[in-house]
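// run 5 | inverse folding | seed 20
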């Protein structure tokens, strides 16, 4: 168990200056119209039905840098002092997490959402020392909370929680980012050196909860699936589709009997009535468990990747979808980040009796009946992405996310944790990087340009109005 999280707190004050004269009031009205016009243009782009990539597990919101000390980054003859230590996250539907940073050069956004993910979908992919980071987590604070014993192993005269957190973070950065970094406190530095020298490779921990595959398809009148449960929890609760009663669709086990709970390795099926109208449904599995130490957490926005150091009993969940039809092509689509290939893998399976043809990135692909294909969409590093798979009869599936697979940069890029500011530095989510609009080839600046154009028209009209008023007054 670890101490309760203290949320971000900040005080702000604002003052409004008195505006004098009819001309100033009119100018304010023009500016208000400009802002409203720009907002209307950009709001339309956010209405798309986006599908972020989620493998299941814990979903959490970062709340702050809780226990920390100071460290110095050395790079190209420059030194930069930063805060180093434990972050805390609040888990959706209950639970708390403690994490360390493994992505030094990216910013941390306040209240950023994070999703448990595999190492292959983060900067740990291809890092030969990733297993050593897990060893450090298992053999240091907060997993080892006997600080006297930890200090003795490290040859330190004593360790506070702040020293232990700082020393652990420094050791992790040396392996996650290849950083030349030292702890400011001499005892924390001794701990960092001890952990770095003692670390041994360990395997990646298993996920707290996933469903494989996350999307299936088949004919009405059949059991569509299976979807296999992978979890470290003793059992999971199975929630059937929301409209199961009306559609007649049931979630069953391999014996065909309705199922409401499952365990690791269980196979779930969607039992679809023969007379069911062509459609789709989703099931959700949920459990309460401690998330394994060493699991990675990636953000939906450009916020530095984290690795789990400690977990309370937390709620984890995963969702799988099924699509069915009486005849024709019956596709099932899912996507997963593939850092090794520099993109996102889009998997398309066709359980129908006719080929499924779709378009992605201006290229056409065909999946024969009963087969599947995987297409990798190349993406730019540290950029938000959005691309759409389209097919016949109005078929459309859009995927969105943030592609962050590398640790890169220099000391001038480190804006994440500054001394005297224990909370992560805040970055505006709207400026965290351009979006790759792969389905159109367009730019994220398009709505801004359109909004600016409308705003200029409004502003021009306002200026003409003011000039005419001035002439009338003269």
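// decoded
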């Amino acid at each position: 168990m670890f101490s309760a999280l203290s949320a971000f707190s900040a005080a702000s004050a604002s003052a409004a200056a008195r505006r004098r004269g009819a001309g100033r009031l009119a100018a304010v009205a023009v500016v208000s119209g400009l802002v409203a016009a720009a907002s209307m243009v950009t709001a339309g782009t956010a209405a798309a039905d986006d599908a972020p990539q989620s493998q299941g597990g814990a979903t959490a919101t970062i709340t702050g840098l809780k226990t920390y000390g100071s460290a110095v980054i050395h790079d190209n003859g420059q030194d930069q002092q930063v805060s180093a230590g434990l972050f805390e996250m609040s888990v959706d539907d209950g639970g708390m997490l403690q994490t360390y940073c493994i992505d030094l050069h990216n910013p941390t956004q306040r209240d950023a959402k994070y999703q448990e993910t595999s190492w292959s979908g983060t900067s740990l992919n291809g890092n030969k020392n990733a297993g050593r980071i897990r060893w450090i987590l298992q053999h240091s604070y907060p997993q080892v909370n006997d600080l006297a014993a930890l200090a003795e192993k490290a040859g330190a005269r004593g360790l506070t929680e702040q020293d232990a957190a700082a020393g652990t973070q420094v050791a992790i950065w040396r392996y996650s980012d290849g950083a030349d970094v030292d702890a400011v406190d001499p005892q924390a530095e001794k701990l960092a050196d001890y952990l770095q020298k003692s670390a041994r490779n360990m395997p990646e921990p298993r996920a707290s909860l996933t469903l494989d595959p996350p999307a299936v398809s088949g004919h009405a009148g059949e059991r569509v699936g299976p979807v296999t449960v992978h979890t470290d929890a003793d059992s999971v609760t199975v929630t059937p589709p929301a409209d199961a009663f009306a559609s007649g669709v049931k979630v069953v086990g391999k014996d065909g009997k309705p199922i409401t709970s499952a365990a690791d390795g269980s196979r779930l099926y969607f039992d679809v009535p023969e007379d069911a109208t062509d459609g789709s449904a989703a099931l959700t599995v949920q459990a309460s468990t401690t998330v394994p130490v060493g699991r990675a957490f990636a953000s939906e926005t450009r916020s530095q990747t984290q690795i789990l150091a400690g977990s309370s009993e937390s709620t984890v969940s995963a969702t799988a979808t099924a699509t069915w039809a009486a005849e024709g092509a019956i596709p099932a689509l899912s996507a997963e980040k593939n850092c090794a290939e520099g993109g996102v893998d889009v998997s398309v399976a066709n359980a129908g009796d006719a080929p499924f043809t779709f378009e992605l990135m201006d290229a056409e692909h065909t999946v024969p009946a009963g087969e599947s294909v995987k297409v990798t969409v190349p993406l730019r590093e540290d950029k938000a992405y959005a691309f759409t798979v389209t097919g016949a009869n109005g078929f459309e599936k859009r995927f969105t996310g943030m592609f962050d697979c590398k640790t890169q940069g220099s000391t001038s890029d480190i804006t994440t944790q500054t001394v005297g500011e224990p909370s992560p530095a805040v970055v505006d989510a709207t400026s965290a990087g351009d979006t790759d609009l792969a389905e159109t080839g367009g730019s994220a600046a398009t709505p801004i340009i359109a909004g600016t154009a409308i705003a200029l028209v409004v502003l021009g009209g306002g200026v003409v109005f003011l000039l005419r008023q001035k002439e009338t007054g003269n």
